[in-house]
Specification:
Helix content: 25-40%
Structural class: alpha+beta
Radius of gyration: 23 Å
Number of helices: 12
Order of helices and strands: EHHEEHHHHEEEEHEHEEEEHEEHEEEHH
Number of domains: 3
Number of strands: 17
Length: 392
């Protein structure tokens, strides 16, 4: 199993993340080549070793031509750049997930439609490269799970396009809602909106517990060097195999939320389930029941991480007729899963493979990949799936 852990004791920014990923082992040449697939000119990546308070690491900086730096973009402009590139679909999807988090936060802060948000600093080429670069690096590392410590936000004030703002900036506060954070370690902006969005979009669990063997450590050096706290982002990479004693069954704590509903239009249940999954639910389901006076009803159940519980409650109370729910802590046991890419005569398909006692016990082709190839070649999805399993 491969785990990436973000130790954000001094915060995180887009450039610190790139530096940490390169320091961890992502080849600079690979990152540069992938960024070129954006098909936009005017920026370059400068990577060099650096030092902060005795800690050595890698500093990555996206250099942008001055006449291009002030160009403002809307979400649709960024989407055109990303989706018009030759990057992989996985990188495109994660990049837009990060950008959308920022756009939603800015829209709420300024009370405007998401498509009217001017990205300002985030829309500049350096931040486009930071965000897409983050997706490229994570895709290269092929980790099974991403963990992070509580995010250090800093303190004091920060100057931005809208003037002097308190730290954390309003957009950052919105992005890290329901995420464990710390403040006040330094009197400056320790975590930028870009850094916050990268974590919220990619981290599976926030925890201070490091209970896995550390195979490699990387340090991303920040631009600022004005405090006694080293301005670095530390990341750990853990790689374990069955021969090294890793368990096939992963056990973790989860939350189950349930409510009984007997007065809601059944047509709306699909919408509610979609909202729950979009919000990060691990699973959600409906069970028909009979309540008092023989009234037919539905039990809505949601499985999620402890960090997502408040967000799931908000969705339930906002989008259903429920006025109360039950909450219980459960232990979730999961088979170790790996994602493989299988090449067939029709194209490439991702396959989720479950491992138990050192052996693959179940392989499931990614449905959306099979669907896309079936449409492309005008054949059945079954034929694509059979071809994938034959090539495993």
């Amino acid at each position: 199993m491969k785990i990436l852990y973000y130790d954000c004791f001094a915060g995180i920014s887009g450039d610190m993340n790139l530096g940490a990923m390169i320091d961890l082992g992502v080849p600079e040449s690979y990152l540069v080549a992938e960024l070129q697939k954006l098909n936009i000119k005017g920026f370059s990546l400068k990577v060099e070793p650096d030092l902060r308070r005795g800690i050595s690491g890698t500093k990555a900086q996206v250099l942008v031509k001055k006449n291009l730096f002030e160009k403002h973009r809307h979400l649709r402009h960024v989407e055109e750049i990303v989706n018009g590139s030759t990057l992989s679909d996985k990188v495109k999807a994660l990049s837009m997930k990060i950008f959308t988090l920022i756009a939603v936060a800015e829209a709420k802060v300024h009370n405007i439609d998401i498509q009217k948000v001017h990205f300002h600093e985030v829309g500049a080429l350096d931040s486009i490269a930071d965000i897409v670069g983050a997706a490229i690096c994570l895709d290269y590392l092929k980790v099974d799970k991403v963990l992070a410590a509580p995010i250090q936000l800093g303190g004091g004030t920060v100057k931005c396009d809208h003037g002097i703002m308190p730290v954390p900036a309003p957009a950052t506060s919105e992005i890290v809602k329901n995420v464990p954070v710390k403040t006040g370690l330094v009197q400056h902006e320790a975590t930028t909106p870009t850094g916050a969005a990268i974590l919220v979009a990619t981290v599976d669990e926030f925890t201070e517990k490091v209970d896995f063997p550390i195979a490699k450590t990387g340090y991303g050096i920040g631009m600022r060097d004005v405090s006694e706290v080293p301005n670095v982002l530390r990341v750990y990479l853990s790689e374990t195999t069955n021969e090294q004693g890793v368990h096939d069954v992963m056990v973790e704590e989860a939350i189950v939320l349930e409510c009984n509903i007997d007065d809601m239009n059944p047509e709306q249940y699909g919408f509610v389930l979609d909202k729950l999954f979009e919000g990060g639910a691990s699973d959600a389901w409906l069970v028909p029941i009979i309540m008092k006076k023989s009234r037919p009803a539905i039990t809505l159940s949601v499985l999620c991480t402890p960090q997502k519980a408040d967000e799931m409650k908000e969705i339930i109370f906002k989008h259903t007729s429920s006025i109360g729910l039950r909450e219980s802590v459960v232990t979730k046991s999961m088979l170790h899963r790996e994602t493989l890419t299988v090449s067939t005569k029709y194209g490439e398909v991702r396959v989720k493979q479950c491992v138990y006692q050192g052996k693959a016990v179940r392989s499931k082709p990614e449905f959306e990949d099979c669907k896309a190839l079936a449409n492309k070649h005008n054949i059945s999805i079954d034929k694509i799936e059979n071809e994938v399993l034959k090539n495993l």
